Amino acid sequence: MEKNGNNHKLRVCVATCNRADYSKLAPIMFGIKAEPQFFELDVVVLGSHLIDDYGNTYRMIEQDDFDIHTRLHTIVRGEDEAAMVESVGLALVKLPDVLNRLKPDIMIVHGDRFDALALATSAALMNIRILHIEGGEVSGTIDDSIRHAITKLAHYHVCCTRSAEQHLIAMCEDHDRILLAGCPSYDKLLSARNKDYMSIIRMWLGEDVKTRDYIVALQHPVTTDIKHSIKMFELTLDALISFKKRTLVLFPNVDAGSKEMVRVMRKKGIEHHPNFRAVKHVPFDQFIQLVAHAGCMIGNSSCGVREVGAFGTPVINLGTRQTGRETGENVLHVRDADTQDKILHALHLQFGKQYPCSKIYGDGNAVPRILKFLKSIDLKEPLQKKFCFPPVKDSISQDIDHILETQSALAVDLGGTNLRVAIVSMKGEIVKKYTQLNPKTYEDRLELILKMCVEAASEAVNVNCRILGVGIGGGIVHQHELIHGSSFCAAELGHIVVSLDGPECLCGSQGCIEAYASGIALQREAKKLHDEDLLLVEGMSMKKEEVVSAAHLIQAAKLGNTKADSILRTAGTALGLGVVNILHTMNPSLVILSGVLASHYVNAVKDVINQQALSSVKTVDVVVSNLADPALLGAASLVLDYTTRRIY
């Protein structure tokens, strides 16, 4: 004990609630008892161990020569949801006195039963260290929630599989306090195969039964869906009756719904049926031999998906109680059934098979690892457990600077002619705007965008604006959310193809809307007219060094240049065809055209919609935005809306 810094024996309290958890705890208890120089063992028995209807299973603890320090009657009879809650409450009332008398250094708690939750809660509130066995596993009932709740209360964890270990780490438990040991029951399972099993089989199933020619059935209520689980139990018994094989049926556990399941057994005459043996309890050593040599095990007990795999015995797992558990290839799942036929078919498939033995849950050496882990516990370490949360961004304290600063967004408009970046406030005011000519190459554009964003972000500090995010103009907004697409390239509306032999687009394709109607496209057409001396008309003039732009084309059209007007009408028609495609695809309630060219295109777009669109979308309103910078404001609004919402 010098290794852990303790100068006295470690006083360990093992509390066991039922026959199932004792099968996992007993190997650990034997190990602790075998090393009295290191440990003092106190055994507390509670729960269904002390109820006659469930076999008075505390007797097997006495038969194993353990001194029971305390017996606590904690089960409130009723076998319904309220009785489970009352049982937890009764245990919480009785446990403090016991723990005050024992004053253990550590309490070992197993699994996911409601009794175990009472144990863990009591120990945690009384500042007693908790070692939890089998945390991190997944199943399909309220047990899942209880298991994870105990994990949060426990200081140390012994898990059985690598996946369970990863779940515990994901739950922010300290990796240094997690031991991957395997299931303690496997230490006994893997050494029990060669014992005299025929006498055990005959004792429980009759003298005429052979190995691999009988079934073991163990089914419990599912507390989150009691009615359905009882129906499944009825169908299971019907299928077993039809299958006509000798069957050992164990009574269900003490969970809500168990009384109704027993009624079903008696209604169908199972206790008096010649092919059935109905029992309340089988000692674990004998139960091992029974499942190891069975033709099949059926039900929803964790034993079926965990321990039975060690023998390769076929298992039929019914319902959702073990959903999420790791299983070997010996397990066939019947998730749901409306009639007995599906279960009967599963019996025909599984009965009598022999599968490879599985060691998913252990290699037979769990107990030595657990004892070593116990010896390493340093009682001088602080009792308060720490959670290993992933790193998160520090919260911003509330101070005067935070109150006075303006919540803002960076908006980016990737125009055909210009790139624009703006700081936009929560009120929709453009605090500062940056504009640069759009470079020719993709790489240069990205470099310029980043440079402009960095410059704007730096300036935001000077004007007391806190940037909440960056928005880029262009896209489809559905129910206030931007549609991204599978590769974040959705809504490239400018590259909707409206003509197979149209002008070449910057994207490399032909006939895109952008190749007709963008500022760059109009500038290209204006330059062609100018080169042919067909652009300027009376009332227009250009300086020698002035660059031809789309504005010149628009001016020429207004002054009566028919060729310029034809180019604008073609561009408007191309845009209109693209809008029609969008109307047929998305069926929006409103079409808003924005930008400096919007007013020149709106009539042409309306005409195309009237001529080309289906009647179901012809009535859509087409309007021109009167905002000065709609693309920048729209991009900013997405950021500001998302980052300041309370519900996402």
UniProtKB/TrEMBL annotation:
Q: Which Gene3D superfamilies match?
A: 3.30.420.40, Glycogen Phosphorylase B
Among InterPro entries, the record links this protein to: ATPase_NBD, ROK, ROK_cs, UDP-GlcNAc_Epase, UDP_GlcNAc_Epimerase_2_dom
One Gene Ontology MF term: UDP-N-acetylglucosamine 2-epimerase activity
Q: Where is the UDP-N-acetylglucosamine 2-epimerase domain?
A: 38-375
Q: Which residues bind Zn(2+)?
A: 495, 505, 507, 512
Q: Pfam family example for this protein?
A: Epimerase_2
SUPFAM superfamilies noted in UniProt: Actin-like ATPase domain, UDP-Glycosyltransferase/glycogen phosphorylase
Q: Which CDD domains match?
A: GTB_UDP-GlcNAc_2-Epimerase (cd03786)
Q: Where is the signal peptide?
A: none
What's an example Gene Ontology biological process for this entry?
A: UDP-N-acetylglucosamine metabolic process
Q: What is this protein called?
A: Glucosamine (UDP-N-acetyl)-2-epimerase/N-acetylmannosamine kinase
Source organism: Bubo bubo (Eurasian eagle-owl)
